[in-house]
Structures are given as C-alpha cells and as structure tokens.
Amino acid sequence: MSEFLPDPTGPFVSDLFSFPAHLLESQNYATSSGHYVAQLNLLSQTYSGTRTVMGDGSCFYRSFLYGLIMQLADEGNEDERVRIEEYIKGSLATLTSQGYEEMIMEGFQEELLDLLSQIPPSRTSDEINLHNILIHPNGPSQMSTWYCRPLCSSYIKSNPETFKPVLLIDYPSIDSYCKSQIEPSSVESEEISIQAIVSAFGVKVNVEYLDGHDGEKVMRHVFGEGRIEIDMLYRPGHYDLLYRK
Amino acid sequence: MSTGAGYGAELLRRQLADLNRNPPDTFSVGLGDDENIYNWELMIMGPESTPYEGGFFKAKLKFPENFPNMPPEMSFTSEMWHPNVYESGKVCISILHPPGTDEHNPQETAEERWRPIIGVEQIVLSVISMLSDPNDESAANLDAAVQWRDDRKGYKRKVRQTVEKSQNDV
C-alpha cells in the first residue's frame, strides 16, 4: 500500500486539475524519500492534466469508465459508441450463459445502457453536463462501475486458455479468482483483471507507474488495443486519470 | 432516512417483484408494515429431512442505504436454535460479510463473502442450506454449537420445540 492515500469519500472523479502541480500540492511527495518529484516532472513532458478518482477500491473501473464515456462523446468516435453499446447490449446473454442471474445482471446493465444513452452528440458543448452525470452519487455511474466487474469475470471465463496459466498459480480455479478478486466492490484491479476488462471493451489503457524507484524513468504499462486510449497514473494502491498536453 | 430513490432501491424493487411473480418453493418475501423497500420480511420453510422440517420461520432482511455495495443483515424473528444464529436471531453467514472485514473468521475465504451482484434469493437459499448444514467452525450461538456437536439428540429435541412453536404462531 502507498503512503500517499487517495480520498475514499470524495467525488467519484474530480474536476480537471493541472498536472503535476495538483498532486504535488495535495500529497507529500516533496518530503518523501522516493524519487516521486523527479518522476512527476518527467511525466509532465507528456501530461498536463489530471483528474483524481475516489479511492474506494473501484478506482481503476471508475477511471476506465469515465475516460471511456467522455471519449465516446468526442465527434469522430460515433463508430466506437455504437460498437460499445452493442457490446453492452449483448453482454447480458454472455453473463447469463455463464450462470450469472439474469434479473440481477439486467439491473446493472440497464444503468450502463442509461449512461451510454446520455452521451451528448458533441462533447465540446456538453462536457460539464456529462461530467456531472458521471459523478452523481445516485446516478447510473455507480451501478455501471460495478457492472464492469462481472463483465471482467465473464471475459476471463470466456477465455480460459489465456488466463488459466497465470491464475492457477495462486488460485484454485478461475471461478474462485473472479469471486474473490474481481466481483467484491472493494477489491482493487491488478494486471490480470485490467488485461481482461480492456480486452472485453476493445479499449487501450496506458498506465504510468509512479513508484518512486528511479528518478530517471517511469515505467509505462500498455494494456489492450483499440482506437480509444485512456491514460492513467498508478501510485501504488491507486489509479487516477491523466490528460496529455 | 432514504426515500427509496436511487439504484439500490431499484435493484431491490426489481427482485421483490420477481420473487412475488415466481415464488420459490422454500420461502416467501414481502415488505414490512412500513412498506420500506429496505426492510423485507421473510417466511422460511424448515428444510426437509432436517430437524427444522415443518417449521415456518419468520425472518427480517434489513438492507443498508449503500446496498448493494454492502450486504443486508438477516435476523430470525421466530425463535431459532442453530450454531450460526445468535440468540438475538441475527444470522452469521459468510455471504453476508463484506470481504476483508471479518478477522474473527479466518476460515472464511473471500470467495464466499458479499459481492454486489449477489441476489436476495441466493442469500436466502444460502441461509436455508446453512440450516441443513451448520458450520461449527464459526459459532454464533456457542451453546447450540456445543450441543449440535456433543448431544445431537438434545439438539434435535430443542429444534423440534422451535418448529412446533413456529407452527402455532402461524
């Protein structure tokens, strides 16, 4: 766990802050013994903005969904929006075939379809509106975030040949991994579940690892591939969103 | 107090309607007198081929405001004699424990615990299965647990008394 703890109560996703100034102000990186400040300065060559994400164990899924939905509002991403909507519409059948209870899953799926239906035709004019929908505590975004977890499990269960070799080292079965590491709402994502969720959606996620180890370089892990790319900052134990210059 | 708006209430309404439309064989559900969607009342039939057979046990499910992030609490309101049910009636079962919160219970693996996608029917079926098959490694009622282990005859006699009582209450 990191000594730099995220806010567990705060808005789901914050306003856009300038990077790295906001992180330097809100966290004690400057007085830490790690090479955090040097790494943040390196990253500032590429990124100029950040949104911090609530630290309740779902920050990866929340960052992912926020980054995705915002970009689906971009003009030019109409095809992606249709593709993702089709994927979500079809997801219920896949989940049901894997033994997830249809009536329950439908309750979650409808919230995500509702969220997708609220994407405005143009981001430029309606970005604040969409942001407010995405961070509304009683809006569709909370259930949509949770729905990403069974979607993630379902992708792993549908592709056992990819995941079995890694998972069976530490877990008795794929089902056991999904129940204990993916589906509880408080369990943070790690590389296996990230790989699964980005593949399920057909989206690319770049994660910059702020680990404080080496002031000369920052490790970037790239997950999945797709036209939509979401940039994130990982400070061990927590994910936030990054925005390029 | 919640007004019953929002996604948790909606998920509960959906399940209540479904359980009333397709009633399970082994239990029935409804809302309490206050019609609050977060407070359910149950009637559970004692499972066949167990000492609980023939019983009509009343219970309550109390859902938290942040459901389904956190699980409901379940309590029997009928008298219940069982190793995993506190004398207050509160049920102690893994599926109703959020992950990572129960240090007293290291035997419990994370995969048996609460997840937001667990349905009410699954909860009640787990409790019914617990009636048939007590878990003596995590006793909530120590006397019942000891009796279940060391004096099965006396345990059955005591359970039969609660069954008769539940029948008279109906």
From TrEMBL, chain A:
* Broad enzyme group: hydrolase
Alphabetical keyword list:
Hydrolase, Protease, Thiol protease, Ubl conjugation pathway
- The species is Triparma laevis f. longispina
Q: Does the keyword Protease apply?
A: yes
Which Gene Ontology BP annotations are present?
Answer: protein K48-linked deubiquitination; proteolysis
Q: Name one GO cellular component term.
A: nucleus
Q: Pfam family of this protein, just one? A: Peptidase_C65
Which superkingdom heads the taxonomic lineage of this protein's source? Answer: Eukaryota
Q: Which GO terms describe its molecular function?
A: cysteine-type deubiquitinase activity; ubiquitin binding
Question: What's the protein name?
Answer: ubiquitinyl hydrolase 1
- Transmembrane stretches, start-end: none
From TrEMBL, chain B:
Alphabetized Pfam families for the sequence: UQ_con
Fetch the PROSITE patterns from UniProt.
Answer: UBC_1, UBC_2
Give the matching SUPFAM superfamilies. UBC-like
> What's in the keyword line of the UniProt record?
ATP-binding, Nucleotide-binding, Transferase, Ubl conjugation pathway
Q: Where is the UBC core domain?
A: 7-168
Record's SMART domains?
UBCc
Recorded E.C. number(s)? 2.3.2.23
Active-site positions on this chain: C92 (glycyl thioester intermediate)
Reply yes or no: does the keyword Lyase apply: no
Q: Which GO terms describe its molecular function?
A: ATP binding; ubiquitin conjugating enzyme activity
Q: Does the keyword Aminoacyl-tRNA synthetase apply?
A: no
Output the InterPro entries linked to this UniProt entry. Answer: Ub_conjugating_enzyme (IPR050113), UBC (IPR000608), UBQ-conjugating_AS (IPR023313), UBQ-conjugating_enzyme/RWD (IPR016135)
For this chain, the family text in UniProt reads: Belongs to the ubiquitin-conjugating enzyme family.
Record's protein name = E2 ubiquitin-conjugating enzyme
